[in-house]
Amino acid sequence: xxxxxxxxxxxxxxxxxxxxxxxxxxxxxxxxxxxxxxxxxxxxxxxxxxxxxxxxxxxxxxxxxxxxxxxxxxxxxxxxxxxxxxxxxxxxxxxxxxxxxxxxxxxxxxxxxxxxxxxxxxxxxxxxxxxxxxxxxxxxxxxxxxxxxxxxxxxxxxxxxxxxxxxxxxxxxxxxxxxxxxxxxxxxxxxxxxxxxxxxxxxxxxxxxxxxxxxxxxxxxxxxxxxxxxxxxxxxxxxxxxxxxxxxxxxxxxxxxxxxxxxxxxxxxxxxxxxxxxxxxxxxxxxxxxxxxxxxxxxxxxxxxxxxxxx
Length: 311
Ligand code: FMN
Description:
Elements (H helix, E strand, L loop, with lengths): L4 E3 L2 E3 L3 E3 L8 H9 L5 E2 L16 E4 L2 E4 L8 H10 L8 E5 L4 H14 L4 E5 L15 H15 L3 E5 L5 H13 L3 E6 L3 E5 L1 E2 L4 E2 L7 E5 L4 H14 L5 E5 L5 H10 L3 E4 L1 H6 L3 H16 L15
Parallel strand pairs: 3-16, 4-7, 7-8, 8-9, 9-10, 10-15, 15-16
Antiparallel strand pairs: 1-2, 5-6, 6-14, 11-14, 12-13
Helix pairs in contact: 3-4, 4-5, 5-6, 6-7, 7-9
Bound molecules: flavin mononucleotide.
């Protein structure tokens, strides 16, 4: 079976890569992704300055996924800009770079420097991140989101993508898709970021399992699969002009990856399961998806992408 795909006009030998934030903060981790069977790789969401992030424990695996409140620990955007400058683009794996400015001004400054460097990497700007204190994250503030896109898109110039939080209301799918469809060089949306502000409590000790934010944190892994599939499919149905969806959320095996593509995903990222299993996960998930495609008689992703049936 052929697992190849392309995102924003860039070819990937297979559809799988890491979700930003997992296995990608340091060069040593990115090297392990390069050495794995992933089809691509994306760097940790960068802020303008280096950040230590929140106090630990800040990530805890749960029986059906994970909870985290990392607080965006990262090396600062120059580290990732340098990584992108030194990246070997003759490598078969294209490079994605995630940016997560804490303000529009920070995003503008970072995007300007990437544009000036004129690199073949693809930007995924994280719209599911803190914006103005006291206001919802960018992805939940339609006006701020549209304004940010109108400012950033002409600076990026090239095709780029945004990482979106999950939505839970049809009116929100409609509103966000309408904004995305207005921006010509916005080539893809990545759905979904963590399901925000869950709370995991240990039954025995009666204590929250992570330390930051009184235990509140983003949920990932198996428990968010159906929310992720709904978001992938909602945007797949609404986006126009060849805009694509990258699916992320709840992939633990080839089966969930298959469902993401059926819902409309053009590529699939993995967070929690990669963190738990390590980069050898990519060989497993590839093999499992190939076996599923073979059993169902599908030769390429195009054969079933977006073809979920409804009753
Ligand atoms: N998403 C981002 O866009 N930027 C990040 O820096 C980021 N950091 C994360 C760190 C951890 C430890 C985890 C578990 C997730 C992080 N995420 C981040 C969200 C993931 O990229 C992904 O959207 C989410 O975990 C859902 O995928 P999953 O179900 O495969 O875990």
